[in-house]
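Let's do one together. I've listed all components of the complex below, 674 residues spread over two lines.
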Amino acid sequence: MNDVEKAILMKKDRMNEINPFFKEVYQDFKEMEKLFPRILQTEIPLLYQSATYLLKSGGKRIRPGLMLLSASSNRYDREHLLPFALALEIVHMASLVHDDVVDAAPLRRGKPTVKKKWNNRISVYTGNFLLARAMRLMGSYDDHRINQTLSHVSLEMCKGELSQIDSVFTLDDRMANYLSRIKRKTALLLSMSCEIGAYLGKADEHTVRNLKVYGDYLGMAFQISDDVLDYLPANGKFGKTPGGDIRQGLATLPLIYALHHAKEAEEIRAIFPKQQKTDAEVERILEIVRNCGGIEFSLGIGRSYIKKAKERLEDLVNPNLKIALGEIADFVMERDF
Amino acid sequence: MNDVEKAILMKKDRMNEINPFFKEVYQDFKEMEKLFPRILQTEIPLLYQSATYLLKSGGKRIRPGLMLLSASSNRYDREHLLPFALALEIVHMASLVHDDVVDAAPLRRGKPTVKKKWNNRISVYTGNFLLARAMRLMGSYDDHRINQTLSHVSLEMCKGELSQIDSVFTLDDRMANYLSRIKRKTALLLSMSCEIGAYLGKADEHTVRNLKVYGDYLGMAFQISDDVLDYLPANGKFGKTPGGDIRQGLATLPLIYALHHAKEAEEIRAIFPKQQKTDAEVERILEIVRNCGGIEFSLGIGRSYIKKAKERLEDLVNPNLKIALGEIADFVMERDF
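Okay, and this is what the predicted structure of the assembly comes out as:
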């Protein structure tokens, strides 16, 4: 079985599978879930509805999970950790809500997205509300390092989005730019989850640093695996329709590889910048990327990040933590499909 | 000359007139303007362009102005004050940028607004970038009170927006709801500007509290005067087309008064909830509101806020500050038209 076949086979396991890794902190997860509605309480019914909407749709809680695990490297005090864990998930939710904001531009396959009246405005202010709640939760520590880290991650996430918007449809084929975008988009928040988790758990600076770097590499692999998913054939109810990034003009790693290595690269260059693509055109790009080995290459890069992430766990003294974080790392590239 | 005539006559003085009140802190304004581009510096050209766009269009800098004046009540150290002054203006800019986010809903007089590709998304992330920059500037004080105040104001501003969205076209005629919306939308940030200015200037708690309340009342009057403006006849190049709030389904003070006191209130109730209104319909509502005294009533409420604001200045010991803040208060209702 080659990489691609294995990836397709495992794609159906994708959903709701990461939770078992967090079994060490299961009680905290339960406490955290109970606290969300209270934290997001507001006397404006519409705002409460929009702010808690994402809670109902589940989510793997990977950021609080990593944070709580990282904190368990040393001292562990749940009361002290939960506000930050909540804040991490809320920052993530805010980014999803802001991601809902779309333009009336003809970028959604030529059809207007079905959106309620005012939905964009509601998304903006719901996202802001979530960010402000997270800010308050993090502010409750009254700790300069924590406050600085949040504004740093927020800034970088915005830069990542804007540079992505800037590069859309332009077919930027520079791998360094891609890596810098996904670092900002995904890796930094995971890195911060591990870093501050360890820090709040009073780990020594060496451990804090190692877990921070672990989170960074894990996040890189996480996003790469997500981007690869868009190039795999659809697979039953767990699969998403492939080619979404191509339609939206987003050049990710498999495509960037194909631009440099596929003999049909010129064909991609001709089709990709079109704002409206036919299904056949999208299918053609998918085919070129798959045939030239773009998926295997990307999985390889992802695996090398995982390898580097796991190296950072070597010095950990807590054996349970070492095993749990190592399993999460393996899962991202080997089973997250 | 009655109130309305006076208001119309003074409307043309509206722009760029508030700066003279800040002459006490003129040097700081100059320093501050120089710092903006450096603070908003980023290696993403599109982001730098969008983030600094508002700087070029001027602005009265009322929030940093109030803050710097309030700081001058006591000790004054420019280096210590400027980060917060910058942050206040940047928070305000973020709210303007996020306000640019619109829906494809048919709310703009039946015409699609002329917007660049991706403009909504750019607005969201530019606003977030500005907020994160402000957060970092405020975080640089490493002061719990300052951090808590920012997240509090952010939260309340979001609540204000969502409750406004919630009430749009529903013709909510409760004055208490209107006052609570404008408090969140406008008054809180002005109040915070004065409060933290005094606090950073090491004023005693009594003065901090008085200036905070002064800023609150000033902000209420400020927003009321802005809302009244929408009911005054257009007036040359300084006037904005009246009736914008009516078209957007926003019930402000003059309209709320008319709903309770105009004999043609039922006519308003019939027209107002329509998402598309003809020019004649908008004109009819304007006429009813003007004829029943809705403008005079609103100006009266605004003036009573100004009176209460000025009472809070009585205990100030610095005579220059007392005069400057008193003049600003007078200007808001008497000359801001």
